[in-house]
Amino acid sequence: MAKSFLMSIAIGALLAAASSMASRAHANDRELLLVLDRNACVPERIVPTQLSAALIVYAVTCKRPARVLHVICIGSECRLQTSPRENDEQ
Predict the structure, then answer these.
(1) Are 27 and 50 in contact (CB under 8 A)?
(2) pTM
C-alpha cells in the first residue's frame, strides 16, 4: 500500500515536470495517472501530442516493464490505446 502511494507521488512529480514543459496541462492528471497505474507503468518519459483542441495522445515510456504505452485523452477522459496508430492504417 505504501509502495503504491510512493509510486503515485513519483508519477505526479514526473507529470508535473512534463506539464511544465508543455504550454499547459492538457489532460486531467488524475485520469492519466489512473491509466498508468492500472497498467503497472512507472513512467520514465511522457511526450504529449495534441491532435485537436480536446484530443491528446501521450506516449509514455515505462521504466518497469520497459515498454511504451499510448494513452488517448479526450477532455478529462483518458484511455489506453490498444494498438499503435501506424497499425490501424495497414
Answers:
(1) no
(2) 0.61
